[in-house]
Design a protein that fits this description.
This protein has about 450 residues and is an alpha+beta fold. The chain has 10 helices and 12 strands. A 5-stranded antiparallel β-sheet has the order 2-1-5-4-3, with helices on one face. Strands 7-9-10-12-11 form a 5-stranded mixed β-sheet. A two-stranded antiparallel sheet has the order 6-8. A hairpin with a 2-residue loop joins strand 1 and strand 2 (about 90-95). Helix 5 (about 210-255) runs antiparallel to helix 6. It is rod-shaped, with a radius of gyration of 51 Å. About 20% of the residues are buried.
Length: about 450
Amino acid sequence: MIQRLSLASRLALLFAACTAVVSLFAGVLFNRASEAHFIELDQQQLDSKLVALRSTLQGVESLDSFAQREAQLRAELNRQPDLTLRITAAGQRWLDDAPSVSLPEAPGLHTLQNAGTDYRVYNAPLRPGQPASPQLTLMLDITHHQHFLQRMQHLIWLTVGLSALATALLGAWAARSGLRPLRRMGEVAASVSANSLTQRLPHQQMPAELADLAQAFNAMLGRLDDAFQRLSAFSADIAHELRTPLSNLLTQTQVILTQPRPLEDYREALHSNLEELQWMAQLVNDMLYLAKADHGLLVPKREPLVLADEVETLLEFFALLAEDAQVSLVREGGAQTAGDCGMLRRALSNLLDNALRFTPAGGQVRVRMVEGAQGVTLTVENSGEGIPAHVLPRLFDRFYRADPARHEGSSEHAGLGLAITQSIVRAHGGRIFCESAAGWTRFVIELPRGN
């Protein structure tokens, strides 16, 4: 199986490719510009030589008159050894110093190669504007120019290769240095375990592009740490809650069996054990209920509900308890929604039971219902001593009691009611939160209209 390239190697190759392309493009442009520059220089040189030749041959009309000027012409040509001349008139060649090669006849500047030598060929009439004028063909040896251009091309390729290699090496070093925070993140991730969830990445020291990723990674570790702490506390709480009833069962059974006793004593002991077992069974059922909610298995039915009727039914059920506690129950407003009747009754029952337990004599418990454009808002509030602000975020934790004094083995309240209520509300697509201020504590349930 072909091993995939690392990110640092990919970046290094990308840097090298970009540098090679840019260097090659710049080299080609420079080579073309140099070639055009040499052509321009050759044109200027040949133009200036053509002016001198025309001046030397001024008045020459025939081969005889040319013979009188030939010595002067050759003296002019000897000043530039790399220049040769061919003069043609009426099919005759007056002068032919050019190599024996077929030359272009079209006027203007041409480039020609012969026997490994490069020439610039320039055709022009001796007397412009006269059709019968002798034709001058100047051949300039430009081999040194071509050698320079060839060396430049070799230098360009060498520069491209060396630049790509140097950029690849520097790019690999830069990429490796730049990706060091990612390797650090990998090391931290590899070292994460149940006993090392407190490690964090120093995002302040990281580049801006990785700072957000480091913060998200730290936030993930924080959530994992919090979840693990909650799981550990949850396991401890389960053991704590079950320890007392199990101890009671064992102690009471051992005591009753130490000696023979009347039948009534055995019956009383069994009734006492039955209460403890029923409480333990309810605790296990509640835990299974919450486990189903955690795994998305709590699927409520969707049936039309008139909340006012459901609340009224629950208030009638709690009426005797409220009367004994000297607490008044009030219902305000009304609303309709769709949901699971049994589940919503259980959630509201938990909230009402909670409110009655913490409302002092002479206080009031109110249930308000409001149907708005976004959905239904149901509030259960009670008067009395408020809840400290630092306690509010933990109210819906399992086995959490706002009262710091734990009631071990309480057969009435194990601290799961609000957690179950929250699971029910979330299963319906809503949310629940608590507010406590000005002598009133409010549990607010918001259900979306889609329900």
